[in-house]
Design a protein that fits this description.
There is one protein chain. It is built from 16 helices and 11 strands. The protein is α+β, with helices and mostly antiparallel strands. It folds into 2 domains: 82-319, Beta-lactamase (3-Layer(aba) Sandwich), CATH 3.40.710.10; 344-461, Tetratricopeptide repeat domain (Serine Threonine Protein Phosphatase 5, Tetratricopeptide repeat, Alpha Horseshoe). A hairpin with a 2-residue loop joins strand 6 (278-282) and strand 7. The radius of gyration is 24 Å and the shape is globular. 43% of the residues are buried.
């Protein structure tokens, strides 16, 4: 008996739809196996959201909500997102420019009176791409708002000429927030709520939600000890994985600020981040947007491919420095490529030991390298050593940091990474007031990588 055209169409639809559903389910199963293996290996405890073409492909809460292990994570918990939060102040600045209330070329002194003459040379555009030249006063970034203001008022001059070098510094974020308040007449928290959270229906997003309250996941270390929240400056956004997904989706499709404003905000100094982290454009179109942030054992990563309608949001309250590796594994599944589930971080394993005793810590590091390749990731060894050096430097162990940087630059690596090691070495010598060694280090950085503009700017300043 012959089938009618209508029945044939229905059968074809069912076959095609069934194949699509099966393919989606297969992707979901593969992603779930990666996330569960990452959790089993101890490199992921957190919430994750993956969207494809605007629909949720995968969503999970994996692990514990606090150090006690008595409660598990849920998708409704808020997380601190570290420096990803700076997207909100950067975008707010662009909103105010679109409304004609400020210009990126305006000097800081126009909005914040009482600062030194240097504030006349710092433009708003320098604040949003971290090229202001304002120095770091506290390497661990623990000052309260009033202390930051005191330090700025006492500052006589900048570390380098604005626009000539990059220095990631929370003082730039602080000043952006104060400009937003000055121009809008609202507190920073109220401006963000009225202009971003409410319009985007980000109903689980709060500025400065207390880190010890019930709605927020509590951070802990690898020994399941609670991590004290140490960021004292105000203005940090805490939110759910779903709300961060709403934010990225709206932002990357120009529903928050215009494409022109987005492009301007995404401009970065070579080797440094913009207010949006990292972005890439092709033929004037945004191809990807990635931003990682961390703070007091919280860590977050957003990754967006707008043209492929792929969005990945990862949040953790037990930082393992492996969110990029997890993201890459997920992309591998989505793009039918090779997948590697990350192993444990060498940097996190050795940093405290080297801080306590450099010789014993390095002996332990060499032991891991010799005997534990199966458990620890040595694929970017120079990066782990540079991160360890920075950890020591932030705690004012400058001689130990220099020693570690010297080990790092002897490894095989990209010229930019080796040059970065010499640049960091120069920064340590500069703090130690050893000008000749600082100059030698910056010169070596430029010799290895002529494109290292930070080293060139510091040499020019010296």
């Amino acid at each position: 008996m012959a089938l009618s055209a209508k029945k044939i169409f229905i059968l074809l639809f069912l076959v095609i739809h069934g194949s699509y559903v099966f393919a989606q389910q297969d992707l979901t199963r593969k992603i779930d196996s990666v996330i569960r293996l990452a959790n089993k290996r101890g490199v992921f405890n957190g919430n994750i959201l993956i969207k494809k073409s605007g629909k949720i492909l995968y969503e999970a809460s994996m692990g514990y909500a606090d150090a006690s292990k008595k409660s598990t994570l849920s998708k409704n918990l808020l997380f601190d997102i570290g420096s990803v939060s700076k997207e909100f102040n950067g975008v707010s600045i662009m909103m105010l420019q679109e409304r004609g209330l400020l210009k990126l070329e305006d000097p800081l002194s126009k909005y914040i009176p009482g600062l030194g003459k240097w504030s006349e040379r710092v433009l708003i555009k320098h604040l949003i791409n971290y090229t202001s030249g304002i120095p770091l006063f506290n390497l661990l970034a623990q000052e309260k708002d009033e202390v930051i203001f005191e330090n700025l008022r006492a500052l006589n001059d900048l570390q380098f000429e604005p626009g000539s070098a990059y220095l990631y510094n929370h003082y730039n974020v602080f000043l952006q927030m104060r400009i937003i308040e000055k121009v809008s007449g609202l507190s920073y928290a109220d401006f963000i709520k009225e202009n971003i959270f409410t319009p985007l229906e980000m109903n689980n997003s709060v500025v400065d939600y207390p880190a010890n309250c019930i709605r927020i996941a509590k951070a802990f270390d690898n020994e399941f000890k609670p991590t004290a929240y140490t960021q004292s400056m105000s203005g940090w956004v805490r939110l759910t994985v779903e709300d961060l997904g709403k934010w990225v989706d709206a932002l990357d499709h120009y529903r928050v600020i215009s494409a022109e404003s987005y492009k301007s905000l995404s401009e970065n100094f070579p080797g440094g981040e913009s207010s949006l982290g990292s972005t890439s454009f092709a033929n004037g179109q945004l191809t990807w947007h990635q931003h990682q942030g961390s703070n007091s054992n919280f860590e977050a990563l957003l990754y967006s491919l707008p043209q492929e309608n792929i969005l990945i949001i990862i949040m953790t309250n037990n930082q393992q420095m492996k969110v990029h590796g997890i993201k890459s594994a997920i992309l591998g599944i989505l793009q039918n490529q090779h997948v590697d589930v990350p192993k444990k971080s060498v940097y996190l394993q050795v940093r405290e030991k080297i801080l306590a005793n450099r010789a014993k810590g390095l002996a332990y590091y060499n032991l891991l390298r010799a005997n534990h390749f199966d458990s620890y990731d040595f694929s970017f060894e120079i990066g782990d050593l540079l991160s360890t050096g920075k950890y020591l430097q932030r705690r004012e162990h400058f001689d130990d940091a220099i020693y570690i940087y010297n080990l790092a630059v002897r490894l095989k690596g990209r010229p930019s990474d080796i040059a970065y090691g010499y640049e960091l070495m120069g920064n340590c010598y500069l703090i130690k007031k050893d000008k000749p060694q600082a100059i030698k280090s910056y010169q070596k950085a430029i010799e290895v990588d002529p494109g290292n503009k930070n080293a060139k700017a510091m040499l020019s300043t010296l």
